[in-house]
Specification:
Blueprint lengths: L8 H20 L4 H11 L5 H25 L9 H17 L5 H21 L16 H18 L4 H12 L4 H25 L5 H25 L1 H24 L1
Helix pairs in contact: 1-2, 1-3, 1-9, 2-3, 3-8, 3-9, 4-6, 4-8, 5-10, 6-7, 6-8, 7-8, 8-10
């Protein structure tokens, strides 16, 4: 494990606030990494990029797991339909992590921007999407569709990542006819799985700063708990609005990275 960097106390406080915010947003629509990773890079510049990514995973998986547990306790997770997709998400993420060294982010970023623009426009135009449960768009077995979503998006999460939660939620609301609340709940379960696969890869390579992560992990857990509670209390219409804002923020960040 890399040595713990010497950093002013204020940086720990600011990073804890960033982790709390990341956990909150991640529990509702995803995108927490867009807050957490830049904060780690800015406040702990001594860390190698791989260590930043590995440390981000142990922080993120904590809040995501708590959020998934909250949704499950609220009765919004159908575990029987997720047994095989959970395995697919794990395998996909692990495979994606192995592909990471062979795929260029500069190639992936424009493709993801195009996909997310399509996701945003489609969701914005269909006001009823995800508000109430409806008939699936495909006649395929729901578990097979969830399996494919988990495998493909899980692989994407392993080698690139931004927008993973949003893409999973979109697939479940459009293809499976889920309302946003249940789609969010299932996404958190699958996202926790993809994070675990990536975390194990980073840990095996010695790229996780375990001691540094502890205070931020706790803050992320609190954020995940608050976010999931708010989402369950406000329901699918609230999550839909949050989803549109989150996708717009992810797009803005990706476009900024392309042009700077």
């Amino acid at each position: 494990m890399p040595p713990l960097p010497e950093t002013p106390l204020l940086h720990y406080v600011l990073m804890s606030l960033a982790s709390l915010s990341a956990g909150f947003f991640d529990a509702i629509v995803g995108g927490g990494g867009l807050i957490q990773i830049p904060a780690l890079l800015l406040l702990f510049p001594q860390l190698a990029p791989a260590t930043v990514l590995g440390t981000n995973k142990i922080i993120s998986i904590s809040g995501t797991t708590v959020a998934a547990w909250q949704y499950a306790c609220g009765g919004h997770v159908r575990w029987r339909s997720l047994r095989i997709p959970i395995l697919a998400a794990f395998v996909g993420s692990a495979a994606g992590a192995r592909l990471a060294g062979h795929l260029s982010a500069s190639v992936m970023r424009p493709l993801v921007v195009v996909m997310l623009i399509a996701v945003w426009v489609y969701t914005w135009q269909r006001k009823e999407l995800g508000i109430q449960r409806r008939s699936p768009l495909t006649r395929c077995h729901p578990e097979l569709v969830t399996f494919l979503i988990a495998l493909v998006v899980g692989m994407y999460d392993g080698f690139f990542g931004p927008g993973t939660g949003s893409l999973m939620m979109f697939g479940m609301t459009t293809l499976l006819g889920m309302e946003f609340l249940q789609a969010t709940a299932h996404t958190k379960v699958l996202n926790a799985t993809t994070n675990l696969a990536a975390l194990l890869t980073f840990a095996w390579q010695g790229h996780v700063q375990w001691l540094l992560a502890i205070p931020f992990l706790l803050a992320n857990v609190l954020g995940g708990w608050l976010g999931s509670r708010l989402a369950m209390r406000r329901g699918s219409p609230f999550i839909r609005k949050f989803f549109l804002w989150a996708v717009a923020a992810i797009l803005a960040r990706l476009i900024w990275d392309m042009w700077r």
